[in-house]
Amino acid sequence: MDNSLSIISLILSAGFVVQVVMFILVLMSVYSWTIILSKKKTLMDAKSDIKVFHHHFLADTNLDKLHTEIPEIVSNRTPMEHIFGSGYGEFTHSKSTSNQALVMNSERAYRSMNTTANNEIDRLDGGLSILAMIASSSPYIGLFGTVWGIMHSFIGLASVKQATIAIVAPGIAEALIATAFGLFAAIPATIAYNRLVSQVEAIGNKYTAFIEELFVIFQRQQ
Questions:
Q1: How many domains does the chain have?
Q2: Which end of the chain, N or C, is more open, meaning fewer C-beta atoms within 10 Å of its C-beta?
Q3: Any residues with CB less than 8 A from the CB of 73 and at least 6 apart, and which?
Q4: What are the contacts of 100-105 at 24+ separation with CB within 8 A?
Q5: What is the reported pTM?
Q6: Which domain holds residue 133?
Q7: Where are the alpha helices (DSSP H) in the chain?
Q8: Taking a C-beta distance cutoff of 8 angstroms, is the pair 113, 139 a contact?
Q9: pLDDT tens sequence across 14-45
C-alpha cells in the first residue's frame, strides 16, 4: 500500500512536461484498448458469419434458392451474404445462356466478389494502423518524458552544494515513471496488433477460398 502511495505521489509531484507526457500516454493506452476490444468483437462476428453462411451454403447447393434467402438491401446483408450476392447477381445478370455469355458472367462475378471481399478486409483492417502507431511511438514518448525529467533533475543539482542519492533519487524516479507509462501503452498495443493482423489475414484467406469455391460452381454451369 505504501509503495502504491509513493508512486502516486511521485506522479503528482512530477514536473509539468512529464505529467503532460504521462497524460498523453494514458489517453493513448485507453484509445488502444478501445480499438482492441472493438476490433476483437468485429472479427469474432466475421468468423461467426463465415462459419454460419458456409455451413448453410454446403447444406443447400441450390444457388438460386440461397440467393432469394439473403436480404435484397445490401446494407442489411452480412459480409458473406454480400460476397455471394454480388457474385451471383453478376453471374445471372445476362439472360443469355450461350457459353460465351456464361464465361463473361462468371468472370464478372469473380471480379465483383473479389472487390466486395477486399472492401470487407479494408473495413476489418481499419484502425489497426493507429494501433501500430501507438505501439511504435509510445516508448519514445515515454523516453522523452524520462530524458526531460532527468535533465531537469540534474539542472536542479546546480544549486546544491553536495549532491546525495536522497536528493537525486526522487527526480529520477519521477522521470522513469514516464518510461513505464510508455511501455504500459506500447506492450498491449504491440501484442494486439500482431494478433489482430493475423486474424484479419486468416479471414481474408477464408473469403478467398469461398470465392474460388463459388467460381468453380459458376464455371461448371457453363
A1: 1
A2: N
A3: none
A4: 102/218, 102/221, 102/222, 103/222, 105/218
A5: 0.81
A6: 2-220
A7: 2-13, 16-59, 63-69, 79-91, 99-125, 128-156, 165-220
A8: no
A9: 778 888 988 999 999 999 999 999 999 999 99
